[in-house]
Amino acid sequence: MTTLKLSSRLDGVAESSTLKMNAAARELAAKGHKVVNLTAGEPDFPVLDPVKDAAIAAITGNFNKYTPAAGIPELRKGLTRKFEKDNGLAYTPEDIIVTVGAKQAIFNFLLATINSGDEVIIPGPYWVSYPDMVKLAGGWPVTVDTDAKAGFKLTPAQLKGALTPKTRALILNAPSNPTGVVYTRGEMQALAKVLEGTDVWVVSDEIYEKLIFEGEFTSFAALSPDAFKRTLTVNGFSKTYSMTGWRLGYAAGPKPLIAAMALLQGQSTSGANSVAQRAALAALDLPDSAFKPMVEAFRRRRDRMAEIFSAAGNFSFVKPAGAFYFFLNVEQAYGKAYNHDQVLTGSEDLAFYLLNAAHVGTVPGNGFGADAYLRLSFAVSDSDVEEGSKRIVDAIAKLR
Ligand SMILES: Cc1ncc(COP(=O)(O)O)c(C=O)c1O
């Protein structure tokens, strides 16, 4: 029989480590174990009622048909108001595309801008999907390791050092998944300055915009007219509005780029789901006070995790200023053994040890380009934060 082949495009593309660990934790729980699952990449809060009501009204009102590939006009218009109010950005509806999650916005951007061998700079630790998405687009991810001592912030010198004639884009994500880093306006301005005079795009992934505990959020595009022209501002409804499963994101940038992304979208997904778009319009009308309780809960849980790991004495971390992840340095566990001779060599080993021995699900740092770390989500109940963190401390203390 002939061999049916798959595309070489998939060579070297890895499975998302977040999804892998989440699946392993769920499997163990399904066997009846009390698993504390700290792998979640989504809020543990419900969708707010006005958003649900708008979706129900869209369904009962038969809002069922295909929508324009770039999104329904009223949502694109609504997003111009959001950008104006929250970010001081003056976009027109034609500068905006509605996508199937922020992820599709980034993917469309890469397909629309990257030629074979083009380089994309990604500060690490990075969101697991960026390098693989760049590879799928035929590009080359150039990861630049930031330093925990510098608060995991990319420095202007690092950015300058990574630029080559092949650099096509920089992907910046703040607040960051997995580190929670938030840049000051001055720090961002210094990065923007490095790019002046180049033809490098910036993707500013602002999906955790509203989940900030310290500092102030700055949109990269709002830094200067030069920054505005080179930036694709990416955002979505998944995190702030707990709408991960509704798959709705958006991006704003120069018209030719948005038109190219819409062309791609028209030939792939045909655009986002009609009902979710109506619901998103209602979400945009919610005042920030609507999700304040969620932000306060995340802050409280973050503080509790910090207390527990500080009290344990032998862990180091940079307290996250935003998002809902705690990036914990666990190097002290490497080289130690469990069951007498099972030596832990890295974050994946440790994550599986913690899952099997202590029934706590974590995400290994290697998928984020930082093997010395584990990512712990605090988008879980206060009691799971308490119990999960203590189980990690106790299980690591047992290693010899
Ligand atoms: C940094 C970052 N960007 C984008 C996304 C994707 O969001 P969406 O659900 O809108 O596709 C995530 C989700 O985990 C994320 O952490």
Defining traits:
Aspartate Aminotransferase, domain 2, alpha/beta, Aspartate Aminotransferase, domain 1, binds pyridoxal-5'-phosphate, 400 residues, 2 domains
Q: In words, what does this structure look like?
A:
With 400 residues, the chain is of the alpha/beta class. The chain folds into 2 domains: 8-46 and 291-397, Alpha-Beta Complex (Aspartate Aminotransferase, domain 1); 50-287, 3-Layer(aba) Sandwich (Aspartate Aminotransferase, domain 2), CATH 3.40.640.10. 40% of the residues lie in helices and 15% in strands. It is built from 13 helices and 15 strands. It has helices at 17-30, 49-60, 73-87, 101-113, 129-136, 156-162, 185-195, 225-230, 255-266, 274-284, 292-312, 347-358, 382-397; strands spanning 36-37, 96-99, 119-124, 140-145, 167-173, 201-205, 231-236, 249-252, 316-317, 325-329, 337-338, 342-343, 360-361, 363-364, 373-377. Helix 1 (17-30) runs parallel beside helix 12 (347-358) and helix 2 packs antiparallel against helix 10 (274-284). It binds pyridoxal-5'-phosphate (PLP). Pyridoxal-5'-phosphate is lined by residues 41, 101-103, 127, 173, 177, 205, 207, 236, 238, 244, 249.
| Rg of Cα set | 21 Å
List the domain count as a whole number.
Answer: 2
Count of discrete alpha- or pi-helical segments spanning 4 or more residues = 13
Shape category: globular
Please summarize the sheet with the most strands.
Answer: 7 strands, mixed
Overall pLDDT: 96
State the CATH topology of the largest domain: Aspartate Aminotransferase, domain 2
Structural class: alpha/beta
Ligands in the model, by name, code or SMILES, are: pyridoxal-5'-phosphate
DSSP strand count: 15
